[in-house]
Design a protein that fits this description.
17 helices; globular; two-stranded antiparallel ribbon; mainly alpha; 485 residues
Amino acid sequence: MELSLAGLIVIVMLLLIGWAAGATILIALMCAIPFGATAWGSLPALGGSSPQIYTVFALLLVGRVVSNPQAILHLRVAFGSHWIMPLIAGITAYTLAGSIVYPRVFIGQTSAFVPIKGAIFEVPLSPVAGNITQSAYFALGALCCIALAADLHRRRNYEAVIKACYAWCATNALLGIIDFCGKLVGLTDILAPIRTASYSYLTASMEHNFWRIAGGFSEASAFAGNTIACVAFAFAYWRETGARIAIVLCAANLALLVLSTSTTAYVALALVCLPVLASLLVNVSRANIARRELHILLLGLGVVALSIAVVVMVPKVAQPFIDMLDYVVLRKGESSSAQERGYWNQKSIESAIDTFGLGVGLGSSRASSWIIAVISQLGVAGALGFIAIIYAVLRAPIHARAVGIKATTKPAGLIRGARAAAFATIVSGSISGAAADPGMTAFLFFAIAITTAPALVSRNRQKHTNAGTTKSPNLVTMIPHAHQA
């Protein structure tokens, strides 16, 4: 094992930030996610795998929950509160077993795409190091999901979770701004010293004379995947609570997303905006739209009108942007890279058929879409399991609202923000994800959305029962302070 000095320095800095904010492990974990290209070391025994720094904080979170004297009781409560937790545990067990068994049972019966010396090659299916490393990441994400759910059931520390989400959005925006400004002044990749993971980097490339923004990640598409989740969380939380810091973080990340020149960014943004636009139009039709929602709708219409005016009146200014968008969105499918990734997806579907719907095992191959990767690597059973999980997460706010949760409370905003972030993560992964692992971000927001809603339902029912017709206190006053995290 070889340690990375830069990775260790970043770990210490994030721990200090989390400690100063009053929720050391949770805030450090969320802040570490935008450092997607920073590893704490390398493991030559596993083909030079370099674990990202968030794994340290993830292990600390799991360790804190497990080491509690009442850990068994807390885990029982977490598993009994919602059927999604036993399902996640079951999918994890199935995934780990499949990554060991299926590459050996179906060895040589189908093809797989594996990285060899920085390039992707098509080879006959066989056990590879990715079966171990990707299964470890998947298991760690699932364990963090369960541990965070147990922790939230015990502490009800929603204020600390909101702070952690703010810190996550702010860290992502800060790294994106540093990367962008460094390129504007000619430094190309100012964040190179913290990119210690053994990845193939595309951090100094341009697209039609526009710098591609990679932030703390290894490429623009990975940065876009995290940024769209930040935008979704911040906007959904602001829409529920009106918190100014949320809309500022949303605007900063949205600007970086637009400037990133990533196909994933633009397609994912369009897909994520569709349900938002639909809900705004429904509210308008019912004359039930909030003032801040009306402002956003008018602002969006204004941006569209201004863009059209610039295109018509000053075509020379708009043409470089139009050419860039035309290439990265409309003509992206004609590129050799897109054709290659399309071939990965085609063969991945064939692999699922060749293995009778069981899959080739997590880490055995790669695709270019999370959905196809799930079908190819985890098979029909894994795909059905994730459909159930996503369905439960997207329904989480409905359960809270069914018993009269006020739309202005922070926990209700947290539910909506977590649901939006999880949805955006799945959408971006479905566009360019290589593996069946939904990622640490998705697992954490699964836990937040699923755990917060039932707690609010139970609390609100108890308040109505005890108070009768007496006005209940605002839920915000019942939230523990952040120092309890």
